[in-house]
Protein 1
Amino acid sequence: MRQLFNFRQIPLWQQAIAAAAYVSTGYVSLFALDPVSGFTVLWIPSGVSVGLIYIWGYPIWLGTVIGNVIAQIIFFNGLSTVTDVVLTPVIVMSLIIGHLLGAYWTAHLIQNRYFLGRAKDTICFIVCNCLLGPCLAVVIVPLSLCLLGKFSWELYLSLVITTWIGEAFVIVTVTPLIITWHQNAPVFQRLVRQQPLEGLLLLCLALTVSQIAFMQGYPVAYLSVTLIIWAAFRFGDVGATLLMVGITAIAVLGTVRGQSTFAQDSVNSSLVLLQSFIAFISLTTLTLSAVLNENERAKTDLKSTNAMLTQFLNALPIGVSVHNQQGHTLYSNAMAEQLLRPSSNAQNRQSAQYLTLYRQSANTICPPEHLPTFRALAGEHLLDDDLEIRHGDQLIPLEAQGTPILDERGRITSAIVVWQDISDRKRMAAILADYTHELELEVTQRTQELAHTNEQLCREIQERERTQQALDQAIQELQKLINLDGLTQIANRRCFDERIHREWQRAATRRSPLSLMLLDVDYFKRYNDLYGHQAGDECLIQVAQAAAQVVKRPDDLVARYGGEEFAILLPDTDLKGALAVAQRLQQAIEDLAIAHRGSEVSQRVTVSIGIAHLLPQADKNLSTLIHLADQALYEAKRLGRNQYVAL
């Protein structure tokens, strides 16, 4: 209510334009005045009033009310009688209240979005403004006209129908043009400049069809539907609504003159019949424009998602390749291209069968049917770390993990293979083996020397124990390095995969709850773009360490899941406990106070958290838990980020 009377929101010149527009369009509406009854079923100012409310705000009602009063005084013999003095405010207020209610209901239902952006929002606009909004005027105006003796009670029902059709007609025809022009006029002007000849041809055809149908009375009016559809596809929602209003204006003019196929005994009857046809065109235009806008937005979102996914895959330190049923490569990220680049004399560089891999253990070429790609296409889930690829004199040991991709019928359509350079792992294993061998030799030597005397034996036994401790520590440190993320110094994805399988089996045996949290740094790509990758790495380190400090139980695990995404595994934790951890975690991230000007949810770095909680059972598997956590994380992002969602 406060917003309704906030007249400072609307400049005086806008109120003046609203009043002038109301008066001028009211004058145009007199062309549809029935000379017998003095009643018009085509009151264009109603469509203008609703359109101005949408683009300038609710307080513009004052200008439209002033314009309505002026129109009543000028066009309907002034306020010369007591009946006119009573009737004028009743008509004015019932109309404007209906317009305000329709606009308010629509804005509330579509959450202030552009009404042609989604088909369901367009339906809300039509229902609220064309069906519900005019109800007040439909009841009050005919009732007042009959009570005050302007019309007989026998015409009451006819007045109700005529009033409702007239209000709905102008709102569904004129209002969309005002809103779409305000919203997308630059887009329409650009489209016209790009295809002027097509626009001129469309205009000429529209004028020709309108002339034949509405000025000469030939039954070809439905050809205008095809032209409006053409305009919607090629010139957007502004072009479609503009053409629709132009055809409507010609149709009304021809019908009033009695030249249209819709001409009847009276002007009112003719226009009521015409409005039914125009309403069909208008609803078709609005619905089609909404569907086209929705499809265009979906294409844009899909393109953005694909670009983001490509960037994400190219940033991975592992290779990812996707192959069709024939083994041809459908996609490979940058690391896969680097690791698997085929030789220059390969017959088909996009086919997996020409990829030359070797068996490390046998130093032989791996047959095509034994390649990870074709094994996955055969339905096998595999993990092979006995592969090697050769680039000149360079030998690169590889680990390949292949997974078949199934359609909804369970048929294999393609396969995805993850490639990882395990040179560092092999090198560390070799170092560990050499170190172990050296220690064994030293222990043997010491043992032989200690056989001479008991004193020497005691000293050598102590030395052996110290050496064994050093060996155990070295093994632990090496194992820690294998399972440790090099940047954040927390557990890596490999460690997480091993632990979650082990905890799932343990929880299933004990029938104890298991919770999993996936958290993602909000708008991290923007952070990298704004502050640089070095600052991005530092941000990830701080987030990881904050999470590690929050999760303190020995059995809990904080791991880097990939990129800016982290995973927290909480054994023996129910949903209430997981929510408590999420609350502490969000507070810890907020306490870091890392500035993030590129975020849309906060000026500081925030995280979105997805929480999944399951009691492992025979009819569930581990992928269910991970999928639920991923879906919860997706929902947290969809709801606006900087929050947690539990499933």
Note: Residues 267-315 form the longest helix (49 residues).
Protein 2
Amino acid sequence: MSALMATAGAAFAQGAEVSEIVVTAQKREQSIMDVGVAVTALSGEQLRDQGLQNFAAVADQVPNFTVSLARGAIPDFNIRGVSGDANLSRLNESSVAVYVDDVYLGDETALAGQTFDVQRVEVLRGPQGTLFGRNTTGGLVHYISSRPTAEPTGYGNAQYGSDNWVVLEGAVSGPLSDKVRGRLAGKWNRHDGHRENINKTPGADQKLGAENTWGVRGTLEVDVADNVLMTLIGSYSKGDGEAVPGNSYGALRPDGSRNPADWPNAFCSLGQTLDAKCVSTFSPLGPITSRKAGQGNTELSGEDLELRQEFYSLTAKFEVDLDWATLTSVTNYSHNDFHYEIDGDNGLHTAEFGPGIVQYVSLDNTAKQLSQEVRLNGSTETFDWVTGLYFYTDDKSYQKLDTLVLPTSRLTLNDAGVETKSYAMFGQINAHISDEVSLVAGVRYNKESRELTRGIYANLSTGEVQNVRAALPESKLDTRDLTGKFGVEWAPGDNHLWYASYSRGAKSGGFNATWNPGTLQANVNLTGPVGQETLDAFEIGGKHQLLGNKLRVSGAAFLYLYQGKQQSVTSFNPQTLVASSVFINSGDAEMRGAELEIAYTPNKRWDFTLGGGLLDTKIVDSNVVVRDHRAPVLGIPLKGLELTQAPKWTANAVVAHHLPLGGAGTLTLQSEANARSKIHYSITNHPLAMDEVKLVVNFRVMWRSQDERFSAQAFVTNAFNRKYLLLNRDAVFGNFGANNSFEGEPRLWGVKFGATF
């Protein structure tokens, strides 16, 4: 299900029609109108024109899709209320899978430097357990790179904007011989940092979150034989930037008690907290700096906030035409190193908060993976079918070095590793029982083993070492899953499709990999393994092109039955006055909702794209009780609460007006808006660990030459400088009475020039 925004030049040249969209949501190329799946497709030209350079920007174009950023850097996808675990340890996969060119990435941070020269992005909503397998209970995001061309061609774009923001992107493509075609693409993205530091400590950077990332991709297509096509893809990216620190907001009423025993009645409202009108136990005089959009708070320098990544990937794809079917083989090896240094206290040690805590955290995540898929696709007048085998293995490691300077000195180390092996066989058939009606049936069998291979907690200050892995009664998790899909599709005409389906998805089990000061037995108890989560989904939907293909309308309604929801939970210990996170199965949940997308091109001068989603989530069965300052002894039962990162509504819109300039080309005036309702970031639905309604508006003026070879634009994003949060952590930060929040980007501007040949 989807509407693809027509870009300015393309829409004017093609006339008053919405363009056809081809997707591979069912492992074969199809018009989006023929796919009984909720899928949104965004073109590569749209990604470049609208600057959709990161995960959050893509999510803004998709109903019921949100992205939070753990500690301002690690993405946590949420589709229809189904999200990942948001842990800084990347040992546990997300419930929303990321694919690049048919390859599953076990760590979504690997995608950070690879979003360039993209042919399209497909976002599939709902469980994709048949054709894509494990870890797709929420859906998936698939980036599909541009392919080599038979004729010489290429493009180049250059952008300059706020905070010395420079983006260079380009590609060259064409034949290398009669049977060989190649494409080389690259991108460089750098800026000085888009956030303002409210902390004026000498040596602290005043611009936060600097970025310097570059990537290159080479693609080679070889006609090995008349019926055999080989595609080789090599990718490399490297980033050397700075982590984005958050703000630690005081959350206690200035006129109230700051004794933890009195806290249930001592906290401010969310609005007062985020407006910096409240205090913490370290701020007797209250805040001295008002907050506005795009800020952070740290006494550290850029060298102490390193964010480094290095990723490389090699893919070999063979497609063999067997006349009666197509045989496809996809082999990949990928390696991702992610180094991340953060300000653990987020400004608690400042003039504003007084001599509070000082904490530095350094994290290293490494993921090495190998995957192999072999599948057969075929079509007859009666059937469309696909069947295949899949193998995946990875080796992930995680190290966390936590330095606490004040109020007491302590240096601790977490060192963990997980190995995964997964085997699957799958098949799906679309049976056309009449010219209008088709039945869909698919099944996937998956066998998987996940093992915690290393688990060390060490207090380097005292010399204490705990071998948590050796003390575990069970360090290996073996599972077997049967997932699948059954559905019916009714196409009463070429431009109409109705569908109804049942699908089931499963996510891998996992382990906790961050241990706390305490006994070995306490750390063994929280390690796991954590059981799988499964999701049964019921969906009905329709897709229609009307008014002579000027209007495309897509919609869906769904009901989810969620078992064993995996969740990171922050719990407050009243004895130690410490808040700690643990990864658990939090219970069973129900989600229901609906989505609508509209693309309308009434004439050559106008394009409208509208999207919206409704969502209702609730934990219906859980025996989990979480302690926080509101209930430090009895705790907060999770049963009856809403899921995290699941706003009750989302909305997006793009309006483009094209002005013909005769031989001088076309001028386009475009506005873009995305909004969502309030959102919870805590599974306890804490009234301070959330964000209010978000509304962000962008404006863009674009010019394209008559022959479409040259383009230029000027833009402003978040034009009204609205403040919104990427994450707002559970409201009790230890015993300090403070919130920990990470803000989205402020108003940014830029100019961009492009040429094709």
Note: The longest helix spans residues 520-527.
Protein 3
Amino acid sequence: MSNKTAEELELKIQMDVGELRALQAKAEARAGGDALPAQRRLRSIYFDTADHALRKAGIALRVRDDDGCWIQTIKAKTKVQGGVSNPQESETEIAGPKPQLDQILDGSLRAKVQDATNGALVLPIFETVVERTSFDLHTANGGCVELAIDMGHVFSDKGLQPIGEAELELKYGNVADLLDLAGALFEGQHCRLASRNKATLGYVLIGAESAKPPKPKPVSLPALTTGQSIEQTFIQQMDPIVAAILHNWHVMTQSPNPEGPHQLRINLRLLRSLLRAFRPVIDGPPLRALDKKARTLSRHVGQLRDMDVLVEDIYLPVVAQTDGDLSNEQRILTGRLKRYRDMVRRHVLEELEQWSHASFQIELALFTRQKAWRKYVSKPDRKAPIDGLAAKALDKSLGQAKRHGDHLTKLTPDERHAMRKRLKTLRYQGQLFATLYDTDKTNAFNKRLKALQKIFGYINDVEMAEKLGAVTQLAGGSDESDAAIVAHVLETHQTEADHAWHKAKKRWKQFDKAKMFWH
């Protein structure tokens, strides 16, 4: 009997049959003619209690028939994010297809299974059968990555679903080896990173998990403690921001809910604000590259978000309030604008499936694990308390906003937009470091800043509304009724913008005179 315990690092890519065949041909060419792939038929039986207690505990239990040898596998931390799976795994060779929980080698995993099942019987709930073709591919730096190409089905008494997946597992070497090989295999291709593993597909099939797209959600930042280290704070803030980016990126690809791209863009801005705040101490090529990719992604997501704003916040509120009902001309134009927005959405999603963008998800998911940034910062700087760095970052962002605010009445549209971005950075950095300071003071600051930002945001949206005429033409309309509707929308918002700008001057004076919470 053999046992094996390990923590795996895997990349999972969803692919159809044609894509998998093309990938196999590329892998064969890379491996060379003398290195034949291994081919196996794998039947896996998944077990759980009647109330799915193991799944609720984040544990997968399967027994696999691997060429007549039965392998019991326990996996914990099975969540897949950004195509990355990093489960804790324990494998045991057993005598037959029934689980033997007392044979789990890893003591901590055995205890988790025992706690979750609490003595309840584990039953077979679904099976997977896949034809696996696998290659051991070596990297230039001496690493080794196993590429597994799986085609098959998950089935139960509820029905069956196809499985098409490429999986890259790091056998030895470092994370860079895994990324380099993945890049060599997928560069120039559309790439759909998996958000579910085979176990999740099975639980969806039997109705134990929802097949509905996930809902957008904002980032949840942890509380900070005065005096904690810069390094601890950096990791503590990065992890939830990355998790929110990956979650809302997945939401955006699965659902037309406009809140998905909205939250994703907020998450990306929060990430960039974090990187900017820590730049005096934690900097270097890896972080600069991360910031550049986040900026590029934000621009792509912004195309979709801007169309949502143009239709939902600029156009529809005006035409809908005319007399409560849309006229025939308004209804026709509304339909065209929504169809054009759908076209923009398809274009953006296709662009984000390119490996250059899809790989960014993998880099984010592996970021704190890699720790490549650590070589560019001294140990004393990493261990210094966060308080001083936080105050300096907030002072710098405030100063950048004030350079525009001191000349508020003379700002050009571009300068107003720049000031709006500075205020956003200040707000996000205030959000990052708020728990280091007095709650009442931070709440008062946020209230004043949000009121000011709301005005600048609306003015920016109205300036963006100038694009409505061009978008209407791109959407297939150019007649006199379209022009009249567009003119009415712009006139209505311009009047409101004039009032808003008058308020902005007053709000800025109030904000500028207030004492900042970190002083």
Note: The radius of gyration is 27 Å.
